[in-house]
Amino acid sequence: MDLNIFNYNDYRALLRDFYKRKKKENPKFSHRYIAKKVGFTSSSFFSQIIKVQSNISDRLIFRFAKLMKLNRQETEYFELLVKYNQAKGHEEQKFFYEKILSFHQHSARKLEARQYELLNKWYYIAIRQIISIYPFRGDYKELAKMVVPAIRPEEAKKAIELLKALNLIRKNAQGYFEWCEPSITTGEQSNAVGIQSYLLETLDLAKGALDRFPLTERSLSTLSLSVSEEGLQTVKEKIKQFRKSLLECAENDRDVDRVCHLNVQLFPMSRVISRRK
User: Fold this and answer.
1) What is the pLDDT at residue 188?
2) Radius of gyration over alpha carbons of the chain, in Å?
3) Taking Cα atoms as reference points, which of 125, 203, 211 lies closest to residue 162?
4) Which H, E and C letters describe the chain, residue by residue?
5) Segments of the chain scoring below 50 in pLDDT
6) Distance CA 235, CA 257 (A)
7) How many CB atoms lie within 10 A of CB 67?
8) pLDDT at position 235, please?
9) 149: cis peptide before it, omega within 30°?
10) What angle do CA 84, 89, 92 make, to 5 degrees?
């Protein structure tokens, strides 16, 4: 196939691009033709797959692979994409995503694997933050003890090696490590599986903070709200602006002496309820 399947993390995007390319090559190439070749009765089913309105079964995976003329390795990768995109639950999604990463050989995709690894352990980010205020020169035992809860020296060393590999820290002329960039962000949609792993780890940290720190050193609170769809979007936007303002506050702070983590969660506590008149 002309498309490089290994550049995709979404099988629906792959199928969409495949269709567009074949349609451009041959105007007679249609959803009806795909239905006939792959083996489903409705020509609209392909459109439903692209629009995430329907999934494809294990049986159809190999028929689509045959349609796209995938070789054995490409077929294996396509199967992983389908199972990853249709996975139910974080652990299942994570399992298939890590298998997908193992297929990525060239530098750009290896970088994606490294970025995913960065989000897999909460203390990788914590250590990068510590580097900004602690003159670290290689004492991993001391660095490990600065993290709360404490980690092992070998874990601290692995964190430093990963941060260096991602060009997030570097050693300066004085022999101390420093940031390469003032701040990092994953973006809104980037590396969803890694972000979920990181969120789950920090949620566990938040639970542990109840016993780990006195009330004077932590702030944990909750709100239960009744909102409309419009109100929900307003709340989400205010949270986004709040996060941005806190980041600006931290970036403008001077004489910093500790690293903190803030979790902000918003999730439904009920189904959408139709109000009866």
Assistant:
1) 45
2) 24
3) 125
4) CCCCHHHCCCHHHHHHHHHHHHHHHCCCCCHHHHHHHHCCCCCCHHHHHHCCCCCCCHHHHHHHHHHCCCCHHHHHHHHHHHHHHCCCCHHHHHHHHHHHHCCCCCHHHHHHHHHHHHCCCHHHHHHHHHHCCCCCCCCHHHHHHHCCCCCCHHHHHHHHHHHHHCCCEEECCCCCEEECCCCCCCCCCCCHHHHHHHHHHHHHHHHHHHHHCCHHHCCCCCCCCCCCHHHHHHHHHHHHHHHHHHHHHHHCCCCCCCCCCCCCCCCCCCCCCCCCC
5) 106-108, 188-190
6) 32
7) 18
8) 96
9) yes
10) 45
Residue pair 1/70 in contact (Cβ under 8 Å)? The answer is yes
Give the C-alpha distances (Å, rounded to integers) separating 120 from 163, 195, 209.
13, 8, 20
Supply angle C-alpha 4, 112, 3, rounded to 5: 5
- 258/46 Cα distance (integer angstroms): 53
Which amino acid makes up residue 176? Answer: Y
Identity of the amino acid at 154: E
